[in-house]
Amino acid sequence: MLSSRVLNWGTRVLRRGFASDAKAEVTALYDFHVENGGKMVNFGGFMLPVQYSDLGIAASHLHTRKNASLFDVSHMLQTEISGSDCLAYMESLCTADLKTLPPNTSTLTVFTNEKGGVLDDLIITKISDDHLYVVSNAAMKKQDQQHLLKALDNHKKSNPNSNIKMKFFEPSERGLVALQGPKAAEVLQKMIDVDLSKLYFMTSTEATVCGCGACRVTRCGYTGEDGFEISMPAIKQVDITREIMKDGAVKLAGLGARDSLRLEAGMCLYGNDLTSETTPIEAALTWLVAKRRRESRDFPGAETIVSQIKNGASRKRVGLIADGGPPARHGTPIVDSNGNEIGSVTSGCPSPSLGKNIAMAYVPTDLSKNGTKHNLKIRDKIYSAVVTKMPFVPSNYYNKPK
């Protein structure tokens, strides 16, 4: 029963990213997905698998938690930025402290606007002081490109001697796969020329994978499990994927499982849980605003964000576990005892790991404490839910020993 509920939920969620098939792009793995029973959907302008014929979404989700799954994430925007002043340039757009970040280390950060709202979330890898590798959301591809280029134009007007160069990679140039799950390292170690026991969470390295050089492997992911994102020449993506799939511990996974896994892990989806009207503080992502940046206040929206850090925000993103009833979808109202709307759900689904319905929502800060009870209004009926600490399922990252 849970599997069909998750499938129906996944289909509804993914429809929000649908576009005309005639306009859709494909990744280098498109034929491979079809060959392996991928149920292809047009998501954000890319034809991608929502699931595969051998596993339903819930089964795929649970396989990832116990073994390892491979996700095609080539639709994500991969960007390389080089130049002696590239750190200052990127810091003018985001909240991260890139200058003190060690080489080959990655950080999650956000682009912000002048009101402190989030324009996108992204992972920046500092390869060196003059070389950055950036992965940002596919749904924001055009906006991110325009944002970066406009900012670069302004930067060069203020810094005529700037030597910054920027390269946006198309899926036909660079592919990206995510190998996620507790057996991911064991599987990948057989196929890579670096010692993965020394590659910790949110660190990155150049590597040869399955005999293919020019790969970048970053220990991170979107599931809460240990895992890796592997960037590779698109021309070699099918060969590398076939080789990884020879390991019996690995199954292919699609967008449906990816979304339920990230929700259990308490991770935000841009456009749902984060928007240009949401600040990092409201989103319970204060940790993304680096200490040095709070002091320098030299990023867009700094005054609003720093003020909220000091004085608090009026609302906050929380996790909810429902006592029963149907899953709370995006936009589900949260109402008080008089039926007045006080908040709304931004993401929700049945949790395959917990066997309960979970959700993220924004509620007034004074009603955001763990254990606080709320009312969900679903199809004109009221169901109770309780604020719960996130992640809903414990994370299993491979962190460096302290």
Structure description:
It is a single chain. This protein is α+β, with helices and mostly antiparallel strands. It is 24% helix and 33% strand. The strands form 4 sheets. A 6-stranded mixed β-sheet has the order 11-12-13-10-4-14, sandwiched between helices. It has a 6-stranded antiparallel beta barrel with strand order 15-18-17-16-19-20. A hairpin with a 2-residue loop joins strand 7 and strand 8.
What does this entry show, briefly?
This protein has 402 residues and is α+β, with helices and mostly antiparallel strands.
Main sheet: strand order: 11-12-13-10-4-14
Percent of residues in helices comes to 10-25%
Query: What percent strand?
Result: 25-35%
Q: What is the strand tally?
A: 20
Overall mean confidence score, pLDDT: 94
Rg for CA atoms: 21 Å
Largest sheet: 6 strands, mixed
Q: Helical stretch count?
A: 10
How far apart the termini lie comes to 43 Å
Order of helices and strands: HEHEEHEEHEEEHEEHEEEHEHHHEEEEEE
Low-confidence stretches: 1-20
Structural class: alpha+beta
Shape: globular
